[in-house]
Amino acid sequence: MRGPVIPVRASVAIMSTIMSLVLLLSFKTPDTTRPRNPVAVIPSSAPQASPSGAGDPGSTSPSAPAAPSASPSSSSGYKDGQYTGQDIQSQYGDNQVKVIISHGRITDVQALQLPFDRQRSQEISQAAGPMLHDEALQAQSAQIDTISGATFTSDAYAQSLQSALDRAHA
Amino acid sequence: MPSPRVWRVKSGDVAVVLGLNALVILGMWVRHGGLSLLVSPAADLTALGQLTALLGTYAALIQIVLMSRSPWLDQLFGMDRLAQWHRVLGFSCVSLICAHVVLTTVGYALGDGSSIAAETWILLTTFPYVLMATVGTGLLIMVAVTSVRRARRRLQYETWHFIHLYAYLAIALSFGHVLAVGTDFSNDGVARAYWIALYTIVAMLVLLFRFGQPVRLAFRHRLRVHSVVPEGPGVASIYVTGRALHRLAARAGQYFNWRFLAADGWWRAHPFSLSAVPNSSYLRLTVKDVGDGTAAIQRLKPGTRVAVEGPYGTFTTIRRSSRPLLLVAGGIGITPIRALLEELHSTKGSIVLLYRARSWSEVIFKEELDNLIQERRGTLHYLVGRRGAEGIGEDPLSAAALRRLVPDVHRRDVFICGSAGMMRGLHASLDKLHVRRDQIHYERFALL
Known about the structure:
The complex is a heterodimer of chains A (170) and B (448). With 170 residues, chain A is an alpha+beta fold. Chain A is built from 4 helices and 4 strands, in the order ααββββαα. In chain A, strands 1, 2, 3 and 4 form a 4-stranded antiparallel sheet that branches. The longest helix of chain A has 21 residues. Chain B is 50% helix and 15% strand.
């Protein structure tokens, strides 16, 4: 018996498909969601990895008394002061926050930079900024929910905030 | 008699699973701000783009399941109905995906205040995996376009099928951008896990039934062509032997997708009914030369290896009630009818067989049929000749003609196999004769 013969047209099609795929897969978009300077940042989407223990409801309750000397693994373990987070570049622009700690608690988060370069980004930042701020104060950590429609901004905001809080721990 | 495996799935279960997943997906969209985003034209478009993406992808996954050759789906609905649904859902699926592309691009462009062209460029070059997904969309459009009836008729089956397989690639290519930039997934671990689970389950079904099953059967049964016997002009029966054939658990009236591993044609599988009751020494199928490689099958050499998928089909005597029977065959549709007749032992009432053919040269199995009918004390009417010919009339299967041939037709279970046109006409006739739908069983070769 002759060996099986693949129809010529099919093999040409398969070969060109494979070559196109190789080309396509080698295309990389600029990776913009990483921080500019390479410092390890805990992603906000991994609550269990959080060093601030925000998953513990007791430590995030706003009424819980905050002792500055508490264990550093609790959210109340921040040292008083102002800490500037990393500048995180998201899809739409720079995101950077400053966190203000007094009596071991997050008392304010100031957005130093939010994406304002494009009209859509401005809309999103104007809507999302205050919500992210409130969420951060509520959570007393960077474990904040993503704001609908502002996925990238929320993500970057949380990352910058986390890096600021990491400094507050140190 | 080995009976086919019975799957304990009900059509209601399938509907519930499909409905629940649809609800979860809608819920995901709402939870991730689908509704709350409806505030400005730009955000509206983006949110709708998100919804169409979710639903389009869900439809695409269902499409794959429909064609996964899952035996439980075949048992519930039959491949012919699954193929019809696949056809209808396919066009909706591609429309949804296209809507997603347009809505999202326009929505982002409006939001950014940039032109469509500029936004398209930004999306393609800076959003991770969006270029890949765009190529995937192009492939899906190609699949849809080649399936439009007019294009489909111009294409060889193999070409069309080959192009159709690119749908898998399209779905794979779109996967990355869904998780990387999809609002519903980029920050929600649960949604991400759910989505990956959906893809995994669908992939498992395909691997199990489209790849695993034929390979398993090939190793277990080691099927080979035993002989090819001419039955008439352009028609031949192929006897296939192998090991442990009873474990195939095939029944008369069922079909397999046959792949003959010869140099000429190993790459295509054909659905053919068994034309004899399967036994422990051979399977028999009967093939008419209708192009698409069916002539090559008739030239197969003894010893050629055979790979099969199946058995499929519910056109079996399981469907039979205790009523007497009417079997109707049109042309090559006699093959499963011939097998059914062989399996039926006339203990439960009489059998009438109507065999419609355009000419006597088209009639096959005449001797076998005459013997089988005689043994079963049944009646066989050959309705041979073109329409309008003497003794045939305008329609030999009209209600009036049926009433004359089979006066008690309304009391019978009716098994039909023939061309789509013949079956449509016969359905209408049977309706007029008050034969209920649940009395009528039919087979169509849906996968061809």
